[in-house]
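Re: that backbone. Tokens:
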């Protein structure tokens, strides 16, 4: 094949597989990086580091459950983490109202409500893995 033919073949592959690395099994890693008090109003701010090994995503909507140190559900919330650029690491910050940081003993990724574009298999949850940087566990 000539160089122009190779370039056209590569461009065609990108057009056919717009989800990029995700189609090849590239994960989206969500890291609970830190929790800090949300100021005078109370509550907690969560900082999530996102390593996007997948293609560009317009939306990544997750269902998170905050557990207290005894394992009792303290709060449940939906968080939109998109848009995410392909191959880019980014940080998203969201507020957890009504729960002080010291009362969060763990965070459960209960579900991935949706993602766009969705993978061919339609299972957005399969694209995501979790880890935690600090003492608070982040698990699936």
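Recovered sequence:
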């Amino acid at each position: 094949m000539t160089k122009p033919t190779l370039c056209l073949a590569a461009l065609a592959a990108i057009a056919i597989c717009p989800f990029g690395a995700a189609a090849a099994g590239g994960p989206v890693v969500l890291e609970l990086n830190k929790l800090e008090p949300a100021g005078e109003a109370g509550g907690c701010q969560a900082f999530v580091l996102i390593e996007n090994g997948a293609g560009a995503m317009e939306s990544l909507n997750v269902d998170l459950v905050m557990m207290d140190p005894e394992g009792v559900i303290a709060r449940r919330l939906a968080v939109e983490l998109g848009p995410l650029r392909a191959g880019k690491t980014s940080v998203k910050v969201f507020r957890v109202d009504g729960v002080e940081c010291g009362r969060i003993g763990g965070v459960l990724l209960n579900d991935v409500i949706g993602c766009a574009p969705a993978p061919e298999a339609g299972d957005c949850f399969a694209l995501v893995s979790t880890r935690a940087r600090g003492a608070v566990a982040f698990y699936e």
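Helices lie at 3-16. Residues 3-16 form the longest helix (14 residues).
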